[in-house]
Each structure stands twice: as structure tokens, then as C-alpha cells.
Amino acid sequence: MANWRELFPTKLTFLIFLLYMSLFIGQGIFVTASQESNNSYSYNTVTVVLLTEILKLIVSTCLYCRENNLRSLVHDVHKDRKVLALYMVPAFLYCLYNNLAFVNLATFDPTTYYLLLQLRVVVTGVLFQIIFKKYLSQRQWISLILLTLGCMLKQVDLNSFYSDANDDSEAAALQQAGAGGGATVAATKTIGKNMTGFDFSISAVFILAQTICSCLAGVYNEYLLKDKGAEVNIFVQNVFMYLDSIVCNAGILLLRGELLDAFSAKNIGSIMRFSVIIIIVNNAAIGIVTSFFLKYMNSILKTFASALELLFTAVLCYFLFAIPIYINTALAIAVVSYAIYLYTQSPVVNLGKVRPLANLSEVTTTDPKTKEREDDRRLLDEQGDTDLEMDIV
Description:
This protein is mainly alpha-helical and 393 residues long. It is built from 17 helices and no strands. Helix 2 (11-33) packs antiparallel against helix 14 (274-296), helix 8 (120-132) runs antiparallel to helix 9 and helix 8 (120-132) runs antiparallel to helix 15 (299-321). It is globular.
């Protein structure tokens, strides 16, 4: 029980964990549902990412203005402009990550997509040690390696173990889907997609690029949230991130020569559909929740939250898109789940310069004297524990 309390110090942190996981499950499903029968998109995906960042900026500004005003926000942005500049790095990485998500979900089914993304775990662990000087224990490394092996199981070809008549592999299923002419509308969403993993093609390069972007952006963003920008209001930090992200996505549209055409009546009309609007809203919520997740938990736990999504994604895709759950998929999910169990036995605790969030009202506390008293009390409470936690975790 104590281990779970280390993972989730308050009820709100547990709620953030569940919300984060649910939103990411929705991302893969919503994007897949919005695709055409040939797995392409009838809308400009970069424009969707840009509109998502604009919505995030609006939401973060409104949340900040619950207890403050726009003049105060402008003042804070100007005062911490150096932090704003530092946020350009994770903003650019997240810009690439978000756009590559559309590319890779057009190539892979959601379950395979999320399995392959788990390859980021070991890289995240290494970066976590380098940046935060928080060395992972032997058990934690075993859990990371097991999780990676679980992802590799997805690629195992079971053709060598089963005859064609009893083949339970996904490769055989794809052959049957191609041979049969009675595919359902849901099943057509997966025809032509890679359901077996890496195939040493350009799709492998894109998924690797997205994995690397995820690792670097997640750890660097956590570094800003808990170190360089620890004294900056979390909603102001979000404003920094989304301002820089808007610039990055606008830059991509400009480089592609689509900046003006992206906002034409035709393109906006293709976006103003429920299947696309739900993607924008869901992804905007992911951005807001992720900032809370990284500030009050850590990127390793964030990675394992993503791993838990595998089970639920596989089940939902079975019902929504008629994607069967094969033996290699079930084995991969089982190994990943056990790796998660191992991790919870000795979780990484890295609060940096912040403490666990008990309620949202703490985020918007701006009275200088009150904040100063709270900060002094937090330092007194946490001074004696910090070094010990760093050594034993």
C-alpha cells in the first residue's frame, strides 16, 4: 500500500493519472476513426495540430485568469522570457511528435502503434538519470528491459509454430482479410496497415523519430517544470509551451507552402466535423493534463501509464475496428503489464522543487506573502528528506 502512496501521494494525482491514460487511449481511436478507407486524411493534419495548440493556449489563459488578469499574464511572460525561450526546444519536439502521430497512425493500427512507442522507455530511463541524477535501481532497469522485450514480442512471427489452417498470427489474418470480400466497414480501417511491427521501411524511421522526440521532449519538459521553471506558475509555463508550439506548427505550414491555404474555407470545412473536432478537443486536454502529470509525478511513470493504455486500446479496437487480439499481442501486453507491476514495487520519486498537488486551487495561489510562507514551510518540511530520497530510490 505504501508503494502506491509513493506513486500517487494525493487523490488528485491518481485522477490525473487515470485522465491522462483515458485521453491517450482516445487519441489513437479518434484519429483512426477519422481516416478514409485508404487510411489517408481528408483534412490538413498540421492545421489540426495548430488549432489544437491554439485551443490549449486559450484554455491555459482562461485557467490562469480565474485568479489573475491578462495584464498579470503579460507581466509574467515578460518577466520569465528566458524560460519562454527555453520552452522552444520541447515545443519543437512535441510539434514533430504530434504531426508524426497522424503519419504513424495511418500506417499502424492503434495497438501496434502504442506497442512500438514503448521502445522509448529505456531511452527515457537513461535521460532521467543524466538530467536529474536519479539512478534507477536494478529492479527498475529489469522492469524497463522487460517492457522493451514485451514490445518486441509483438513482432514475433507465429507462422513457424502453426500451420496455415491454425495460424493465429496477424500476418495470416491480413492475408485472410485481403482474400475475403466481406469485410465490414470497421474492419476496412485496418486493411493495408502494418499490424506486425517494424518492417525496416520508412514507417520504421518515422516511428523511431516519434519515439526519440517523445523521450527528449518529455524529460526536457520535466526538467523545465521542476528545475528552471519551478517557480513559474504552471499555467504560465503552459502558455510558454503553446506559444512556442504555435510558432513551430505555423513554420511547418509555411515551409510546405500551405500557411494561407490551411485556413481556406474548404480546409476549415473539412475540419469542422465531429470526428475531427473531437481529436482537437481530446489532444488539447492531453496537453493540459500532461503538464500536471510531469510537474507532480514524473516521465517514467508517464511512460508506464502509456503502457497500461495497451490493454484498453487492444480491447476497444477489437470492438470498434474488428482488430482481433492475437497470441503475440496478448503475450506482449502480459509482459508489459508485469513490467509495470515490477516498477510499482520501487517507483521513481522526483518532485524536484515542487510538492504533490492536493487541489487545483494551489496552482493559482498568487498572493506573494502567502506564497512565500508556503514556500518556506515546504522547504523546512522537505529539506531533511530530499537527500535520503535521492539515495534510496
